[in-house]
Amino acid sequence: MPGEQLVRVDGRRVRLTNLDKVLYPETGTTKGEVIDYYSRIAPVLIPHVIGRPVTRKRWPEGVGTDADPGMVFFAKDLERGAPSWVQRSPIEHSTGAKDYPLVADRATLVYLAQVASLELHVPQWRFTAAGDRGFADRLVLDLDPGPGAGLAECALVAQWARTILTGMGLEPYPVTSGSKGIHLYSALPPGHSTEQSSALAKELARAIEADHPELVVSSMKKTERDGKVLIDWSQNNGAKTTIAPYSLRGRMHPTVAAPRTWDELDDPDLRHLEFTEVLDRMQAIGDPMAALGFGTGAREADDGPLSAYISKRTAGRTPEPVPSNPLGDASAGDLPIFVIQEHHATALHWDFRLEHDGVLVSWAVPRGIPPTYKRNNLAIMTEDHPMSYATFEGVIPAREYGGGEVTIWDHGTYELEKWRDDEVIATLEGQPGGPLGRVRFALIRTQGEGEKSSWLLHRMKTDAAGRAQQDGQPVIARGATEAAPFSVGSARSTAPVPPASAFAPMLATHSSPGIARRSAQRWGPWVEAKWDGVRAIGFWDGERLHLRARSGNDITSKYPELTTLDAGLGPDPAILDGEIVALDERGRPSFPLLQNRMNLSKPREIAKEAPRTPVRWYLFDVLAHDSVDTATLPLAQRRETLEQIARGSIPAIVVPPVFDDVDAALDASRQFGLEGVVVKDPASRYRRGIRSESWLKVKITHAQAVVIGGIRPGKGLRSGSIGSLLLGIPGPDGLQYAGRVGSGFSDKTLALLEKTLMPLRSEENPFVGVPREDAADALWVRPEVVGEVEYAEFTPGGILRHSRWRGLRPDTSPAEVVRED
Asked: Would residue 475 count as lying in a domain?
C-alpha cells in the first residue's frame, strides 16, 4: 500500500507506515526518527524493562503544540492486530484480563514505536516464571519540583537522598525524567513485596522532609508544594508505573528519561536531554545505570527450562530473542516443529532443535546431519531455546555468547515415536526442495545428563513403516556445496563465506611513484584511480543492498539512492568493495562535497540532501559471490566476477576502468583532479583488515588523516566559535602534535564540529610536544575524532604546513591514523 513498507528487524517482519509524519511539530521530529531512536537505543533500554508489563502513552497524530496539544491514549492492552510474536502477559483488572506487551527484543520496540507509543511506563517488579507479579526488585523515588522550584533543586534533594540510601547499602542511580524532575533508582535485595518497598520509600521521603522542611515535602497535597520538591514515594505501589529509563517523553520537544552520572547532577546548567543527545551519550559512555539492568549480572533468571538460555544472553546486545518468561510457550500447531541451523561460531557446527514441552530442545552437531545410516554423528546437548528461535537468522556479535553467523539450514515438522531421557526417535519432514527431505532419526544418549551430555545422532536404516530410507547428501557448510562450486576461469573455490562481521576492508600502503612503477613492472601493470570518497563494503542479498563503512558501522540509511531499490547486481548474493563518492559540477569526486551526506543521520535531512548531492558507488573488488568466499582468488579473476555482477547495475553503481601504465594513470588523475592512484598486484588475494604491500597508493594531492585533540577559540568574526583545531598523529610516544588547521571551514562545518567535539571536552592535554603558545588558550578534547586535511608539506619537526580542512572521517578510528608522507 502507498506509504507502507515491510522491514525485517532481527528476523521479525514489521510493517511501517507514515514515516514522514511529524510527531513533534516544534522540532520537526518524524515518526521515522522515533522508530530509529527506539531501534538504536534498544541495547541499553531493554535490560531495564524486560520482564515488566509495559503501559504506554500513544500520540497517533503527534504531541501537537502548546496551543493545540495532540490527543493522547493511555494503552495497557495490546492492540488488536499486533504481531503474534510480540510477547505479552495478562494482568487481571476489574473489567477482565488485559494482555500487556513485554519488551524483550528490538523488533518489539520498533513495533511499539510504529503505533506511536512514545512513552513506555513500567512497574518496579517483574513477572515470575508462573506469570504472577513478582517481588519488588527496584526502589524508585520521583523528585517532582513544585511551582517555583526546578531541576537544580531536585538535584540538591537527590544528593541528600543519596547520602541516606548509600548508608543503607542501596546505591542510587539518577535519571533526569525528561519532563520536570529526577528519578532515583536503587536495587532491592530479594524478597521485598511492593507494599514493603512502598512503605520504605515513604519513610525515606519523610526522613528527608524532616531534615530539610524548607525544600522537601512528602505529602501529595498540591497546596503544600510551592517552592518545594515533592518526593513521590507512591510509584513503588505494585499497581503503579514510572517512565522507563531511555523512554521518550510526549512533550513539545523529544526529551528522554535519561540516566545520568552524579557528576552531571553537580552541573549548575543541568537540563533535560533530547533523544539525539542520548544516542550520542550511549555511544560515548554506555549506560550509567547498567548495574540495575536485568541480564547484566545484577539479576539472575528465574527457574524454568529457559533460565539457562536467558542467563547467557543480554537482551539488546544480541539479535537473538531473549524471552522474559523462562517457562516456554505452548505449542502453536498440530505437529511439533524442528529447525536445523548452521552456526559459524568459534567452531562451525549445526544446531539440531526439536520442539518439546514449549521449548526447543537443542543439540550441537559438529559434523552436521549424517547422510547415511552407516555413520553416526556426535551431538552435544545444549541449553533449551525459546520457540521464537525457530525463525532466527543473523549475526551474533563476536563478544557475545555463541558469537557468529546463524542461518537456517532446514525446518519443518516432525512425528514423534519416542521421547525418553536417554532416547528420542522421530521422523522429520523439511521444506519442499530443502536439503533434508523426510527422514527418520534417533538420538541416543551415551554419556552425562542434561546440558553438555553426549548423544549420537543416527539416521535410521528404515522409516517408521519398515521401508528402507534413501541416503541423503553430505552436509557441507553454506557456500561450499560440491554440486555448485564457484569458479572463475580455471580457478575454483569452495570456501564458506565468513560472517559479515569479518569483512574488514583490505588497505593499501603509502608509496612513491618510483616504487609503485617498479612494483608494476615486477607484478604486471594494474593501476586503479584513487577516489576521493569513503570506503563502503556492500552486502547484496539478491534484492537489496546493505552498506557498512570501513569502521563496520551500518551506513545503509545514509545512501537511499543505492539501498532502497533493486541495484541490479544480479540474483545471487554478493559482498562487494568500493568507494562512495560525490561528484562536483564538473563530474569530479569531491570529498568536501561528500561531507554534506556522510555526516547526516536523520531520514528527513538525508532525503532533502540526496537530490542536491547525489553519490556514486565505484566498485573495485568482490569478496564473496553466490555464498562463496572469493578472497583467496587472484585479483584479476575477482575482477572478472565483479564485472559480471555489475553488468546490469543501476547508473549510480560503476566499475571504473583499470589502467595498464602507472605514469598514464597519474597523468589522468592530475588532469581530472583526482586524489591519486592505487597500483595492485593482479595475482594478490584479498586480505581482510590488512594494510598490504600488494596494494600501493600514490597520492597526488597531499592529504593526511589527523586526530583532533584540542580547539582554539575563535576571534573577530569567529568569536564564540571554533578558531582552529589542534591536530595530532599517533606515534611511538603517544599522540604527536602535528599543528593547527584554521581554514576550509564553512558555517555548516563549524556547527557540525561544535556538536561533535564539545561533548568530548577534557581537562587533559592529549598531545606530546604541543608548543606553549598553541596550548595557552586551548580547550582540550578527548582524542576520539578523526578528520582529514590538505597540506603543503611536513616540517622536519612533523608539523603540517599550510594545512586546510577537508572534513571529518567517521569511517576511520584514531588507532588507524598513520603519517602518509
From this structure: no
